[in-house]
Specification:
The complex is a heterodimer of chains A (644) and B (79). Chain A has 644 residues and is α/β, with parallel strands linked by helices. Chain A is built from 27 helices and 17 strands. In chain A, strand 3, helix 8 (147-171) and strand 4 form a beta-alpha-beta unit. The chains are: A alpha/beta (644), B mainly alpha (79). At the A-B interface, helix 4 and helix 13 of A face helix 2 of B.
Chain lengths: 644, 79
């Protein structure tokens, strides 16, 4: 089975201590909605869904509040066993902000329940009725090659379904949700089944077509189970053993998927679905980092596998925009640099006038997403945020739990499919106005003003369990050091490029202090993320020749930790003062205040914008950040001797 | 996998399926001894076991199961 679907891979994995967390909630005061929704927003298996539903049942019977979940009463009429599906529906609905109550009439009482005025279903006055029927519920008589007879069978089935609908409409007036029928796997002739009238395959095809047309006109709602079954594969969908043993109409392994589809449909009926797609840029909308790789370096072209993967994300965003989803950008970048590909790259499908709000700055993304939602006057729960970086995703999930943040796989080839599989933009109707909606928000990629910073960023960073490792340059790190020195544009104070032999020379010169820095966190090893070279200037002074950092770890106070490390080594060898310089380029505006923020004093300024900075080693005490520090490979005594 | 290991893993599965940590597994334990072990939970139990032990049971094997002892023997024969 494809795990994207059977394991709901767009959702983060369930926490190990899921059951314990659920039990803790039993003692929580106040409405349970937010905590329950946070738990339900993981990829839960059938047993976990069952536990969550049981918990909700108990909470309800104890009169506990489930706010802000929206109550919804759904009756499910089925010709199969749905006892295991019902708890999954209740739990999955929480994921979509719905407190679902399911009315489940006795097994296989579909017709009676729909048509009798005081049936269990009609008495309950459901908001909606789901006809969870599969093909075995239908009077399907083979009529091989007989066009007329097979049309009459299809008409008969549609008539039956309409009778059910009219019963519900007359007796309790709930919204009717019809399912298309997953065709059986076993062929009779083979390929001919599709062409020949009156085979099971063509009867089911005909019914699905007619049903879809009917629903579009009647104002009822369609749940495309046939489409879902095709997506995961009919052979995996139908499990004959389970049908024989317990009358399950499809595989137990797909119950979480099915339940999520019912839940997102119900949420869509209540108007609770995504309205804004907020896009990260680097390695999401294009491959690579625009600030470092430049316009020519980013991958966004046809003919390049990686570029095509990112183009597929762009195409999906554009298609969503066409159906009324508003697009916005949240990127850690300098604004002009981030806009450049939109304006100048010929292969970009997305243009600036597709983007309603364009937030490219160096603030955290939670603050930016909040600004976007405020600018658009849309609730955070209508925002979907797409970002390749697990740290950013984690931050937004933790600080803005209302925002939907799909997990993404390593390979961008699957980004677009994963986003689509999440069903964040499920809709039950489409109106002509939708075509224009995204345009209403259009104001040429304007910038929203940032208000207050979203609280809790530091706590989140502390929870990342970071380890920073300092080493002098060495043979092992050399290739990556050379690469960073020649590639980094944004977080780069001097943008001095050095060749391999030049780096080797620095490595071997005992008077030159070098630093390669690595960072690991709970999401994995970020590898080498910073490089520093200090050269001896006048006696007792180190000149910071090179200081660069990968923007991927921006906002984590890595630069503060690096300075602490430099100071420690400086002290050890009797250096009194550090002197640094900021050499402006058209790419490194980001670090114009780097030295000021670290407590250096300005010692000079040139017309070009070049600034000089100094820091006295004695008494300097830059901020510390919550991370474990490992310092290895330094031969301090050797340096000391050489200076002496 | 020996019986002790199977019992240990099976205890976790029971805890997960019945949402109840205190179920003590013995060979003679059967549906009538455990609260909530009805025909549907039985199916959910078997499906969870199939997943946990990466095995598939045939319809007739499932039909012959009488108690936990039978279940362990069946898993042992497979895993």
């Amino acid at each position: 089975m494809n795990p994207l679907y059977s394991e709901l891979q767009w959702l983060p994995r369930a926490p190990r201590e899921f059951s314990a967390k659920l039990k803790d909630l039993a003692n929580a005061g106040g409405p349970l909605g937010p905590e329950l929704r946070a738990l339900a927003s993981h990829a839960l298996d059938l047993n976990q869904l069952t536990k969550l539903a049981k918990f909700i049942g108990r909470a309800r019977s104890e009169g506990k509040l489930l706010d802000p979940l929206v109550p919804f009463r759904l009756a499910v009429l089925s010709n199969s066993t749905i006892d295991m599906i019902v708890p999954a529906l209740v739990a999955s609905a929480v994921r979509h902000g719905i407190a679902l109550e399911v009315i489940q009439p006795p097994y296989d009482q579909v017709t009676q329940e729909a048509l009798i005025l005081d049936s269990k279903v009609n008495r309950s006055k459901p908001h909606a009725v789901l006809f969870a029927l599969d093909y075995r519920a239908l009077p399907l008589k083979l009529s091989l090659g007989d066009h007329e007879a097979s049309s009459s069978t299809v008409r008969g089935v549609l008539g039956y379904l309409q009778t059910l609908r009219n019963g519900i409409k007359t007796n309790s007036n709930g919204v009717c949700i019809f399912q298309t029928f997953a065709p059986p796997v076993e062929p009779l002739f083979g390929s001919l089944d599709r062409a020949l009238p009156g085979t099971l395959r063509s009867l089911v095809d005909g019914i699905n077509r007619e049903l879809a047309d009917y629903v579009l006109g009647s104002g009822d709602v369609l749940l495309d189970v046939a489409g879902l079954a095709e997506t995961v594969g009919l052979a995996d969908w139908h499990n004959t053993q389970l049908w024989n043993m317990a009358k399950f109409s499809f595989s137990d392994e797909l119950i979480p998927l099915y339940a999520d589809h019912v839940a997102r449909t119900v949420a869509a009926i209540r108007g609770k679905s995504g309205k804004v797609l907020v896009l990260d840029l680097d390695n999401t909308v294009w491959g690579g980092v625009i600030g470092d790789d430049g316009l020519e370096g980013i991958k966004v072209a046809q003919g390049d596998a990686c570029g095509e993967a990112h183009l597929a994300v762009q195409r999906m965003a554009l298609d969503l925009r066409q159906r009324g989803i508003v697009l916005a950008v949240a990127s850690k970048n300098t604004d002009v640099v981030a806009r450049e590909p939109f304006e100048k790259h010929p292969e970009m499908l997305l243009k600036l006038d597709h983007i309603a709000v364009f937030q490219a700055n160096w603030n955290d993304k939670a603050t930016n997403i909040q600004a976007i939602a405020e600018e658009l006057s849309l609730g955070l729960d209508s925002v979907v945020f797409l970002d390749d970086n697990p740290v950013e995703r984690g931050l937004v999930r933790q600080l803005l739990p209302q925002v939907s943040v799909p997990e993404l796989p390593e390979d961008p080839a699957w980004y677009a499919r994963t986003l689509a599989a999440g069903g964040y933009f499920e809709a039950v109707t489409f109106a002509a106005e939708d075509l224009k909606r995204a345009g209403f928000y259009q104001d040429n990629a304007k910038r929203a003003s940032l208000q207050r910073q979203v609280g809790g960023v530091d706590d989140y960073l502390a929870s990342l369990d970071m380890t920073i490792t300092f080493q002098p340059f060495d043979v092992t790190g050399r290739a990556r050091i050379v690469q960073l020195i020649n590639k980094s544009n944004q977080y780069n104070l001097t943008t001095r490029r050095y060749t391999d032999p030049e780096v080797t020379e620095a490595e071997n010169d005992p008077e030159v202090f070098t630093l390669q820095v690595r960072l690991a966190d709970i999401f994995g090893d970020n590898g080498m993320i910073s490089v520093v070279i200090c050269r001896p200037a006048e006696a007792g002074v180190w000149e910071i020749d090179t200081w660069l950092m990968s923007c991927r770890v921006l906002g984590r106070k890595v630069e503060h930790m690096v300075l602490r490390e430099i100071l420690e080594h400086a002290r050890a060898v009797g250096i009194r003062k550090l002197s640094g310089v900021y050499r402006p380029t058209d790419r490194n505006k980001l670090v114009v205040d780097h030295y000021a923020k670290l407590g250096f004093a300005k010692a000079g300024e040139e017309e070009t914008g070049l600034t000089c900075w100094e820091l006295l080693v004695e008494g300097a005490n830059p901020q510390s950040a919550p991370m474990k520090v490992v310092s290895q490979g330094f031969a301090v005594s050797q340096i000391k001797e050489s200076l002496a | 996998m020996d019986e002790a290991q199977i019992y240990a893993s099976l205890t976790d599965v029971f805890a997960d399926v019945f949402d109840e940590e205190s179920i003590k597994l013995t060979p003679k334990l059967s549906a009538k001894d455990v609260d909530g072990w009805d025909s549907l939970t039985h199916i959910r139990l078997l499906l969870t076991i199939e997943k946990a032990f990466k095995v598939k049971f045939s319809t007739s094997e499932i039909g012959r199961l009488e108690n936990v002892g039978d279940l362990v023997a069946l898993i042992k024969a497979r895993a």
